[in-house]
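Reopening this ticket.

The earlier resolution said the output was attached, but the attachment link was broken on my side. Pasting everything inline this time so it's all in one place.
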Amino acid sequence: MLTVKQKLARVKFAKAALRRERCSWRRVMITDSKYFRLHAMGKPAGRWCTPATREVVARPKHSVAAHVYMGVAFHGATSLKFVTGTHKQVSKYTDPKSKRPYRGLAQQEYTDVLHDHFIPEGNKLFKNAGQWADKWQMQQDNAPAHKTPTNMAYIAANVPGGHFLAWPPNSPDLSPIENLWSWMDIKLHKLDKCKNIEELKERLEQVRQSIPPTLLHNMFDGMKARMERVIELNGDYIGK
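Inline output:
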């Protein structure tokens, strides 16, 4: 359930987004991460849902998974970046408390994702499109590794237009990339079942390359309606 404070933050975000010029979302690259699990292949996939409508599905312990980052824009999508959390992929950064490699994505690893992946591929996407190459902006969620002062400063210094807006907490329904993850999930389940993590990675990139441009166009041009809807609902969940 959303708190009153969270609802107010969602409305504030939507109003700020609507104050930008009409084509502002076309110059934004939205980034996110998702776990794709080997055991889940062949099972039905669903879209993001509210807590009240979410199904509870038992998950095997120690399931093989790929933890992947991707950036999407009106003009296309970045390649996939597999990070810590992917089966047998160990962080090269050490937790100073435990003296062991981080079990999840560390701040330093996310800096690497920005430096080696999101920013150069974002520059390429907008340059090839011939639009917003010197003004494109990046939008990310509020995961701890994303919003550290170090990484926010890195984005401000290296993304031409900086960061778009501070994403409101507990708001995956406002991001069109959630629907794109679901689309990829459905496509993945239609392929032959993967035997191992390497096959899963290959299939995911194959699916990523098949994303139709019209799907991305509709996603980004539909952001205005998403913002208007959350304001209409006084900050409540807008659904799919």
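Reporter confirms the inline version is readable. Residues 44-48, 56-60 have pLDDT under 50 and may be disordered. The two ends are 16 Å apart (CA to CA).
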